[in-house]
Amino acid sequence: MSLRLADGDGAPGHLPVMLAEVLATLAPRDGGVYLDGTFGGGGYAGAILERASCTLWAIDRDPEAIARGASLVARYPGRLHLLHGPFGDMVALLDQAGVRALDGVVLDLGVSSFQLDDPERGFSFRHDGKLDMRMGKHGTSAADLVNALPEQALADVLFEFGEERASRRIAKAIVAARTEAPIETTLRLAEIIRSVLPPDRSGNHPATRSFQALRIKVNDELGQIEDALRQAVGLLLPHGRLVVVAFHSLEDRIVKRFMSEAAGRTGAPSRHDPAGLMTRAAPKFRLLTVRAMRPSAQETKQNPRSRSARLRALERLSEGRDP
Fold first, then answer.
1. For residue 12, what are the contacts with CB-CB under 8 A and spacing of at least 6?
2. How far apart, in whole angstroms, are the C-alpha atoms of residue 132 and residue 121?
3. The total number of structural domains that make up the chain
4. I want to staple 60 with a disulfide (CB 3.0 to 4.6 A). Which of 65, 77, 111, 143 is the partner?
5. DSSP 3-state assignment of 205?
6. What are residue 59's DSSP bridge partners?
7. Segments in the chain forming alpha helices (H)
8. Are residues 215 and 255 in the same domain?
9. What's the rounded Cα separation, in Å, for the pair 38 and 65?
């Protein structure tokens, strides 16, 4: 989860996760053009603009985030530009603005703390609210899924996107409960899940993985990540950098695999495979993080929500961009 809990560069009370590491890895420079693909509360955006006299484009699919960013745009006139839409459409969004190349891209994946902490958005079971979870406020909601999906399809969503081993048991309970009355609130869904699962040894609420799964499905988060990574590297100029902060294994697995392949870190074909006879193309990128960077002990103590964060980064080599 992308949980920007904090400082004066962003919205009050919200801190960008691994901010120092992001800035050091992105290394914004004067005159550069950068993209924050997950604007959220503007924590990264404000820090990037303070670090260098650069131009920053920022994307968010949540209209509330765009509205919230107006004060930051006013603080950096002519330097910060907000674009409303999903980051998986970054090429089209930037192209409409006349931007076709970048010196760096930063992506902070998952749900923002603004969304998580607002009961009306329905992302969390910590407060009762409408079961929604739509980042962009349109399309299929979480309530639509839990009230309409067949039992097996619902179990598949919980297992695939939440890695929930009790997915079939939970799906069965949800289907039984919805025959009595539609499931419309976060607390009702959480209680249905709690009723069929034992307490989690980690101390996490039993509904944690199921809520994650529904959120990812509602917003097509994994598909968006794959689209965004592919488009981001195509926009990078020589020595341009892509920095990604992921918060759970499904996100991080996609980022790790993509960056490894882009940097030519995949294994060689078997000697019995004809492909092994072909000359392998020289990689166009290099890994800046052979292993994922993790938040410091001090940061996780100050902001427990950052503890699962993993930062990975990639740099385009000097031979140029893809056509």
1. none
2. 6
3. 2
4. 65
5. coil
6. 83
7. 19-26, 43-51, 63-68, 70-75, 90-96, 113-117, 142-148, 151-162, 167-180, 186-196, 208-219, 221-235, 249-262, 297-302
8. no
9. 10
The confidence score (pLDDT) of residue 264 equals 93
Give, for 60, the enclosing helix (H) or strand (E). strand 55-60
pTM of the model: 0.88
Are residues 151 and 95 part of one domain?
no
- In a domain, residue 258? The reply is yes
Show Cβ contacts of residue 195 under 8 Å, excluding neighbours closer than 6 positions.
173
Assigned domain for 140 exists = yes
- 134 and 107 share a domain? no
Q: Could you tell me the mean pLDDT of each successive run of 10 residues in the chain, 323 residues long? A: 37 74 98 97 96 98 94 97 97 98 96 79 89 91 98 98 97 98 97 91 87 96 97 98 96 97 76 57 92 95 90 88 50
CB burial of residue 86 (10 Å; 0-12, 13-18, 19+): buried
Q: What number of other Cβ atoms are within 10 A of residue 147's Cβ? A: 18
